[in-house]
Design brief:
The complex is a heterodimer of chains A (398) and B (414). Helix content of chain A is 51%, strand content 15%. With 398 residues, chain A is α+β, with helices and mostly antiparallel strands. Chain A folds into 3 domains: 104 residues, Acyl-CoA dehydrogenase/oxidase, N-terminal domain (Butyryl-Coa Dehydrogenase, subunit A, domain 1, Orthogonal Bundle); 102 residues, Butyryl-CoA Dehydrogenase, subunit A, domain 2, CATH 2.40.110; 145 residues, Up-down Bundle (Butyryl-CoA Dehydrogenase, subunit A, domain 3). In chain A, the strands form 2 sheets. A 5-stranded mixed beta barrel of chain A has the order 2-3-7-5-4. In chain A, a hairpin with a 2-residue loop joins strand 2 and strand 3. Chain B has 414 residues and is α+β, with helices and mostly antiparallel strands. Chain B folds into 3 domains: 97 residues, no CATH class; 146 residues, Beta Barrel (Butyryl-CoA Dehydrogenase, subunit A, domain 2), CATH 2.40.110.10; 115 residues. Chain B has 13 helices and 8 strands. In chain B, strands 1-4-5-8 form a 4-stranded mixed beta sheet. A 4-stranded antiparallel beta sheet of chain B has the order 2-3-7-6, with no helix packed on it. In chain B, strand 2 and strand 3 form a beta hairpin. In chain B, helix 1 runs parallel beside helix 3, helix 4 runs antiparallel to helix 5 and helix 9 runs parallel beside helix 11. The longest helix of chain B is centred in the C-terminal third of the chain and has 29 residues. Chain B is globular. The chains are: A alpha+beta (398), B alpha+beta (414). The interface between A and B is large, with 53 and 85 residues.
């Protein structure tokens, strides 16, 4: 069989367009060590028993573990510049953290505080605002949440209706936010609102609100994924400070959501890896018809396909993070690509993991459903796959 | 491999090329010079036309050739698989007889492994070799042989012992294709091309000295050939050449490559031509259809992810890290990409997807994609075999139960 695969792959190679050679396809040794340290920490602190305990609490996290991951691993400020109290690394390290947290299904206000709110402040805030707000977030002393989506459940900027009215010492916010991750425990709220009388991306801006301000009404929602808490927050004439400038509001918000999409894609990849490993291990243990089920070709092939899916989405998630770190002009499009890829993959892997476990996989006692529910909520969170696919083509100019 | 070494190697090859490269030489004369110098295959041992350089430095040598547009040794087809097999298992006499002419391009080789009755199960070969004095007599049929019609040598896997277990009853030979007992017939494929051949053997003769390795070791030797085939498939593309390309040697090389590449003309179509999708969507207006947009995006996500997965595997390899599972997935990924691409091309093309030939979209290229893609999940190991390999070697799942043990004579076969 005089076949050469390189010829088969060459057409694929020819379709590559990104010119940037500086985008890395491998982690550095330091990044691998960083990953290993987080993994060790989470293996010890966030086994499934801990996940189950914390998901049943209203707060949804363990303040002591939060303190440890802040003090020992500096995770909340891993991507925050040193001048603002952070560790001075970037989005690649942030994504390593979220991937490992997704793997362990850590119950902690990390995505809300570090990924969403901290990035929003870094993207939108003035230097003075960053200097005043970031150190407490980076140290883990304060928690923050980003309130973008409203009860209409849309992720595009045009759907934001919360109104900000200028007053003498800032703004007054009036409106409602929903699906706010960790909104019930945050000390600081970063709120997307629009100057009254504007539409679309025009007049959008980010505001900071102290969560204990009068007029802030927070209600914990019953989330399907109990490991990721969601809140509805109503704002009734709440005094707020503008973050940065109104004219850059939409840009900062989009940038924040794109970064979050990449971090979420990496988190999903981590979670999928756990499920995949669990499924493959189970096929080696479970005996039916006198043989392990992993010896059946129907199962072997399913596992091989699952591996391919996980690795493809992993490549997209890693590449998007590296592209964002390199500030490659294509990175916002790649955020959509990675989010869409990881969403579909994660849910499918979760469904297949249940399928491979058979009846036991559908029980509450089996851990698979914990990740399945994270997969389901992550599929929707920040926009469903079809939304990101459409946005991808728009950003590619198609 | 230190930087100093690479700099030294670069300096040395530069000096040598400056003194020897001449685009007006004949291709064969130049390549003989390369073979004598060891710069043609620098990773080969010094005793056999190489310089014993570590693989990591070969790229540097290739780049120096490319920098001035110098032509290298012949590398097309299966010649380098033949060479690698001979280097590992051949006798000195065999190496002396074949290696030089492989590199100069004077000889063309083909690989005679697959049979109509043994595709995925290569070790089930039933082409027989029977020893008659100084000659083996070959009878049987091989298939999917590229370039057999202009090859002069073949790498032949044939059964020499029917009482031995399947994998232990085969031997490996070099066979002269240009002889009366060998009949080469083109094999027409469903896409109309005939890139491969069927080769029929009727008392074809192989001198005893053409046995590679020992009698009964054919499978082991064939594994070497296949390992190099896979390795080649993972290889990086050659660096692109710079410099003016005028001179006798380029004319000869172009002619050689045209012949060598002729069977592969449709291979890009087999892979789905993802590169055409965006332009086709725009030129047909299909880019305004929300459903088609979704499917295009799905395809591009898949294709990009597959490409980045391959690059991730290479990056790990280049850093000397143990290869992760991502290195075993390229072939399976390519099948998915190709099929998704054919689906999207159909969506975009609409009714015209029912047409074929020069009058159809893109001068028939779109139609050729649609009827070529089915090959990609079969050629070079079916997707099903790939999945078995991934499940067993990467994931550690149990091997398939065997029904082909004991004397091969008693094994059920086609």
């Amino acid at each position: 069989m005089a076949e050469n695969l390189s010829q088969a792959m060459s057409a694929l190679d020819e379709s590559k367009s990104e010119p940037a050679r500086r985008i890395s396809f491998a982690f550095t040794d330091e990044q691998e060590q960083f990953r290993a340290a987080i993994r060790r920490f989470l293996q010890e602190k966030s086994p499934p028993s801990a996940v189950r305990r914390l998901m049943d609490t209203a707060e949804g996290y363990d303040p002591e573990i939060w303190r440890q991951l802040s003090n020992q691993l500096a995770l909340p400020g891993i991507h925050v510049p040193e001048q603002y109290g952070g560790a001075g690394f970037g989005i690649v390290e942030l994504c390593i953290a979220t991937e490992e947290m997704g793997r362990a299904l850590l119950c902690a206000p990390y995505f809300s505080t570090a990924v969403l709110a901290t990035n929003a402040i870094m993207n939108a805030g003035t230097k003075a605002q960053q200097a005043s707000l970031l150190p407490d977030l980076a140290s883990g002393a304060r928690l923050a949440a980003l309130a973008v989506t409203e009860p209409n459940g849309q992720w595009d900027l045009g759907s934001i209706e919360l109104v900000a009215t200028p007053v003498a010492e800032g703004f007054l916010l009036e409106g409602a936010k929903s699906y706010v991750v960790d909104g019930h425990v945050a000390d600081l709220l970063v709120v997307a609102g629009r100057i009254s009388g504007t539409t679309g991306g025009e007049g959008l801006a980010l505001f900071t609100v102290s969560a204990d301000s009068p007029g802030v009404d927070r209600r914990l929602l019953e989330s399907m994924d109990a490991t990721r808490k969601l809140a509805r927050i109503d704002f009734h004439s709440v005094p707020a400070q503008l973050l940065g400038d109104v004219k850059d509001g939409a840009k900062s918000l989009v940038r924040t959501l794109d970064q979050a999409a990449i971090a979420l894609a990496n988190e999903m990849v981590g979670g999928a890896q756990t499920l995949f490993d669990s499924a493959v291990n189970y096929t080696k243990l479970r005996v039916q018809f006198g043989r392990t089920i992993g010896s059946f070709q129907a199962i072997k092939h399913k596992c091989a396909d699952m591996l391919l899916e996980v690795e493809l989405a992993k490549s997209a998630a890693y590449y998007a993070a590296q592209a964002a770190a390199a500030d490659d002009p294509e990175w916002p499009a790649l955020a959509c690509l990675a989010k869409a890829a990881a969403s579909e993959m994660y849910l499918h892997i979760a469904a297949e993991c249940i399928q491979i476990h058979g009846g036991i996989g559908f029980t509450w006692d089996n851990d698979t459903h914990l990740w399945f529910k994270r997969a389901k909520s992550s599929e929707v969170f920040l926009g469903q796959p079809h939304y990101h696919r459409e946005l991808l083509l728009q950003r590619w100019g198609v | 491999m230190s930087k100093i070494n690479e700099a030294e190697v670069r300096a040395e090859i530069r000096t040598w090329l400056a003194a020897n490269w001449d685009a007006e030489m004949s291709l064969v004369a130049w390549r003989n010079k390369l073979v004598d110098s060891g710069w043609g295959m620098p990773q080969w041992p010094e005793t056999w036309y190489g310089r014993g350089l570590p693989l990591g430095l070969v790229r540097a040598v290739e780049e120096e050739f490319a920098r001035i547009g110098a032509v290298g040794v012949a590398k097309s087809g299966v010649r380098l698989l033949a060479a690698a097999t001979l280097l590992e298992h051949g006798t000195d006499r065999q190496k002396e007889k074949y290696l030089r002419r492989i590199l100069t391009g004077e000889d063309t080789w083909c690989q005679l492994f697959s049979e109509p009755g043994s595709g995925s199960d290569l070790a089930g070969a039933t082409t027989r070799a029977d020893l008659h004095g100084d000659y083996w007599l070959i009878n049987g049929q091989k298939v999917w042989t590229t370039s057999a019609h202009h090859a002069n040598h073949g790498l032949l896997l044939a059964r020499t012992d029917w009482d031995a277990p399947k994998h232990e009853g085969m031997s490996y030979f070099v066979i002269d294709i240009k002889q009366p007992g060998v009949d080469v017939q083109p094999l027409k494929q469903m896409n109309g091309h005939a890139s491969f051949n069927q080769v029929f053997f009727t008392d074809a003769q192989v001198p005893a000295e053409n046995l590679i390795g020992r009698v009964g070791e054919g499978w082991k030797v064939a594994m070497t050939t296949l390992a190099h085939e896979r390795r080649g498939a993972d290889g990086l593309n050659a660096p692109s050449r710079r410099g003016a390309r005028t001179g006798r040697i380029y004319v000869e090389e172009r002619k050689e490559l045209e012949t060598a590449n002729q069977p592969y003309k449709w291979y890009p179509q087999r892979a789905g031509r993802v590169d055409l999708v965006m332009d086709r969507a725009k030129e047909t207006g299909a880019n305004r259809d929300p459903h088609v947009r979704q499917e295009i995006a799905k395809l591009m996500i898949l294709a990009k992810s597959a490409e980045w997965t391959a690059r991730r595997a290479r990056a790990a390899q280049q850093q000397g890290r143990p290869q992760g599972p991502e290195g075993s997935l390229g072939k399976l990924a390519a099948s998915h990409v190709a099929r998704a691409a054919a689906h999207v091309h159909t969506l975009i093309t609409g009714a015209e997807a029912m047409l074929s030939g020069a009058g159809s979209p893109r001068d028939g290229i779109i139609a050729e994609i649609l009827v070529s893609v089915p090959a990609i999940s079969i050629a070079g190991g079916t997707d099903e075999i790939q999945r078995n390999i991934i499940a067993e070697r990467v994931l550690g799942l149990p091997k398939e139960p065997r029904f082909d043990t004991g004397p091969f004579r008693n094994v059920r076969r086609n």
